[in-house]
Structures are given as structure tokens and as C-alpha cells.
Amino acid sequence: MGKSRVLLTLTLVLGVSTAVMSSGATAAPKLTSATEASLINEDFSTAGSLQDFTVVCGGAWTSSDYVLTLPDPVSHSACTATADLLVANRTLSGAWGLTLRAATLPTLPGDDGFSVVFGYEDPTDYFYASFDQSRGADKSGVYRVRGPSPTLLAPFTSAMSGIIPGRYYDISLLSAGDSVTVQEDGSTLAILTDPSLGVSTRIGIA
User: Fold this and answer.
1) The pLDDT of residue 86 is above 70
2) Nearest to 201 by CA among 6, 1, 11, 19
3) For 1, which DSSP code?
4) How much is the average pLDDT of 64-78?
5) Residue 8: which pLDDT band, with cuts at 50, 70 and 90?
6) Phi/psi at 143 (nearest 5 deg)?
7) Is 68 helix (H, G, I), strand (E, B) or coil?
8) What local confidence, expressed as pLDDT, does residue 6 receive?
9) What one-character DSSP code corresponds to residue 195?
10) Whole-number Å distance between alpha carbons of 72 and 84
11) Contact between residue 111 and residue 41 where contact means Cβ atoms under 8 Å apart
12) Residue 9 to residue 63: CA distance in whole angstroms
């Protein structure tokens, strides 16, 4: 699905037991990390921060001034579910947690949103949590990509409103065994259980 521009103001710290993506700029207050050991530690202060990531599909991402941005998203690519997909090169295993602060730039027509990718194996096999202006079943929730089309596995709580372009949201994914809990601003939106989540994983953003 095509998305509007994504703006992430964050520092990336992926831990063995927790993975934390936290803000390092004045645009969004800094988040605290409880990480015991880090696997990746990038502050996105320069373009060199992207060296630990791979653009799997879609447009190029930029890194500067503690901001990771997707300036020119595409509507269609080889990744049919998430047209713009950036994945961390490092593989995680065991229990982990990921927290990021993200916002969309309301500059394109249509719904604005972003997705957090996990359980990534290849462009045709991964999970993603989609955060959209709409909380409709075809827009927001946890999806599994296996082949050309995504399947909705866990819709987000309908009482939660969709995202507002330009506002920052604190998103958390917490993994324990074969379950992943998705939270937005401290509220649980979905809990997904799948046997494939209990093994090694890669994470990303789309």
C-alpha cells in the first residue's frame, strides 16, 4: 500500500533482550532505554547511520540531524504490501522489544501512515504493524505477508483513533516467545501469536 512521507526522529538501539528506537532531537523528546546490551546503535545524525540498513523496496531514505526520513515514497514496488521497505541488517534472536517515535508528513494525497516490520525473512515473507489515519480493517492492524498479498492477522482496537499527520506517536513492539504485543502511546492495540515469531527475526520500517 502507498503511504505518505514518513518522518522518524530517533536514535536506534537494538538490544539482545530489548530493542529501543528513541528520539535524539528536539522535535520529539528523548525516550529512555532500558537496554542491557545493544546490537545496533545509530542516532541518524549523518548519512552514515544508514549503513546498518538495507532498502529492500521503494524509495531512498535519508538520515541527517537525528532524523530518518522517507522524502519520496513510491506507490508501487516489488513489495506489494509495503511499497517502501527499509530493513535493519542485524538479526535478532530471543526476547526483544522495539520502541520508536514516528510521525507522517501530510504532504501527499490519500491516507497517511507508516508500518513497523518484524519477522522479516525476505520481500515475500514478513509481518508488519500498520498505523494509518483510518482504523479500518483494510488499513490498520498486524499483517502477514506470504506471497503477493498481505493477510490481516490482528486488527487494532477499534476504539483507538487513527493517526494524525504531523503528530508524533510512541510505538512499541514487545516480543516474548512466539508472541508480539503492539502498543501505541502505552495502549495495547493487538497481541499476535505465531510459531514463526519464536525464532530469529529482522526488523524494519515502511
Assistant:
1) yes
2) 19
3) -
4) 76
5) very low
6) -120, 155
7) strand
8) 47
9) G
10) 9
11) no
12) 10
